[in-house]
Amino acid sequence: MRKYHSIDYAAFGARIANRRKELHLTQQALAEQLECAESYISRIEHGKAQPTLDFIVLFAKALGVGVDYFLPQTKTAAIAMRIELQERWQDASPELLDFLNQIAKAAESFEKSVAAPQKNQ
Question: How many domains does the chain have?
Fold first, then answer.
């Protein structure tokens, strides 16, 4: 049986913080845009809160990036994240499943881009 790693929420939070800073947004401004508490943004950025997939979509929209921006940067982590998402949302609506399939395709594309340089070494 394969062992999969869970999502690295500290890395996820760091990517949010970096993108927010690139856009010159404060945590307060982002919180207002997402209609949540500034403390929640802080907890996410420090890896102390685990946002739902729905909230990750809101982050992506607010920060002007695709959801794939938040995918892990390693092949193994991308596979693990895709499987974890599939397991979490197995009873999801057709619309959400379509969205999740788009994420899976982005992860597969990323996996291929990571694997290609390794084959040439």
Answer: 2
